[in-house]
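User: Predict the complex.
Assistant: Input components as received:
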Amino acid sequence: MSADPEISVKNLNLWFGNFQALKNISIDIPKNAVTALIGPSGCGKSTFIKTLDRMNDLVDNVKFTGEVTYKGRNILDSDTDVVELRKEIGMVFQKPNPFPKSIFDNVAYGPRVHGVRKKTNLNEVVERSLKAAALWDEVKDRLSESALRLSGGQQQRLCIARLLAVEPEVLLMDEPASALDPIATAKIEDLIYDLKKDYTIIIVTHNMQQAARVSSRTAFFLLGECIEYASTIDLFERPEDKRTEDYVTGKFG
Amino acid sequence: MATTPDKTLQRPKAREASERLIQIILLLCAISSIFAIFLIIIFVFSQGVPFLIEAGPSFLTGSVWLPADSFAAGVWGIFPIIVGSLLVTVGAIAIGAPLGIACAVFLAEIAPPAIRRVLIPSVSALAGVPSVVYGFFALLVIVPWIRGQFGGFGTSVLACWIILSIMILPTIISISTDSVRAVPKEYKEGSLAMGATRWQTIRSVLIPAASSGIVASVILGMGRAIGETMAVLLVAGNSVTIPVSVVAPVSTLTATIALEMNYATGAHQQALFAIGVVLFAFILVLTGLANVASRRRVTA
Amino acid sequence: MPAKRRELLPMALLWGAGIATILILVIILAYILAHGLPLISWHFLTTNPGVRGQQGTGIYSTIVATLAVTGVALLIAAPLSVGGAIYLNEYTRETLLRKVIRQAAEVLAGIPSIIIGLFGFIFFVIYLLPYTGGWSVISGGLTLAFMVLPISLRVSEEALKAVPAELREGSLGLGATKWQSITTVVLPTALPGIVTGLILGAGRAIGETAAILLTAGGALGLIHSLRDPCCPMTLYIYNILTEYNDTTTAYGTAAVLIIAILAITFITDWQMNRYTRKLKGL
């Protein structure tokens, strides 16, 4: 259903000091679908998604203008509660970053931080999240082991489970599989495909085949601008802009 | 979580206020070092500086030290004491610096892992030995030995040199080792690749490249030596005269303060604070020098 | 080969320097422990010193005094140094303020203990007499805090710096506040390093004499309150050596101190190694 978009971006500009990293981006992100962002290195894809959960605030000297509308408010406003925002719009990073705690404590971290204390509730949330992240079967017998003992792919799924435990609406994924081997990557892609029915997902990827496999809409970024944004099939098979065509056919990258 | 009202994304005042409060408390903790230095300077200087002003330059140049309760009744000259402090420091460096730097080079470049596993904790242990224990050891071992070899009481400049050089070893070793280790590998490899031997590489490439750190470590060692109290107190002899030989007794700024503070009153007590101010000045100069030295790094 | 032969002397000297350093430590430790260990007995550790430095008694009250002043010093220095390290590392960038604070800590660390003792005397013993009781545990402990602070500040800051940025990002990304991230992720991860810093600071306090000389009072009786004067072990060694020439008890006390310091050295070295390896394995 082409209902209201989950997130509506209008005229987003962003500067790091004097360098303009995002130029006049306007995109609508649909609900419960996977939107992919592709483009060569340094084109602004990561910067873009980090704007959506205000993680760019952590960088010095950052300025932005424009609107990012989510749930009826412009989240770029200075009186937005970014802490609450990040609960609803969560991020998975390129390199898995589990905390040096047990598997259980990693997944329970989010709920605990938001006030869930009862052991029974935590157990339930942890199990549910690990199942949703397709990791439960592999770790259910060793929840008290250190998360650092897991393989790279498992750690990334753990990070996803950790995120799901806070019950977000939107998942931002910044090249989630680029640090993983092909088998782990395939598992992550399957997971993303499954998750989209309950969550809105935006994924940044270098891997065009991956974008083609998992997403329903794709945006092509180049040098801070969004060159083209269309349904994935259209973008790959019938690109309108020459630069898009050059990129997807591998003429540069 | 379907239709949460917009209000949840509004910045909550209460949480903001408590986060702000925490930040202020932490800031206060952070400034405590600055605050501490100010406190020390204010209180020590408030006692010592008026005395310095009243006593004038003859405080620093006079050779007779006969303290008394009232200013008029005493003779206030600490020149021999200043000489004493400088003398023991210079000697300690003369012995301790070469030994320390050599040990640092050994540790950084040559020591096999087994020796390193012993040497590194040894340096830490040497750093941890309390100064009074060093003084105790020196009093019972070094002083009698000097007495036996050279006559006299044994409490002397030489005793201070020996024990102080040992006490500054950890400072010099740890900082110099870090400096040598920090020299980019390419320098060493470049030299060896040209056919230079290990020693030649160490002498002509590594030590010069690490020189700013090594110099800084020596200056810091000087600061430690001039500021040392207990060990010196036990083995220096504490006679306020310029020593005539290395086996003559000597008096240092630190030991004089420690020795006389327990019974000093009135002007005498203030004079001791004045000595503290003089010592403080020396330390500031040395710390400043150490900073300048370590900033002049050899760039790649 | 002439070049190799010319190498021999310098290399021998360098080896000699390394071995000499180890030997110096061994000689000093062996000497003190050889004379002092035999004295250490349960009686020695749990009996109070007699009047006028009588031989054959114990050092109980001095052990209590050492623990007391060290405890007071840590009580003040720990929150200030850990809090300060958190502020410096988590709330600021490389600004002027940070450099000034770091410089101040270095200067503070370099101030000779006798000067800090002079300060402690005029400030805690004299000026704050009504609160501290003059020469006392609390005067000595607060003075020592000035010496513990720079050490634990530096080590705590390094421990916090070693926590990877990704952990903070991960925590913030889950909707934790900055302070929550610090208390639930950063601090627990950095804790071994921070504790090591506090132990090192404690070691400094345990071994300090000059500042104690001017602020603690030197009374041998067992303390009953923090405002009582006291005589920590280091001061005791000095007093019995110089006043009574009682080398025997001095050896015993020195041996106890040496053992404590050695234990601290080993624990902190070992812990620091474990900590840095654990974080690198991340």
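Chain C touches chain B through 87 residues (CB under 8 Å).
Let me know if you want any component modeled separately.
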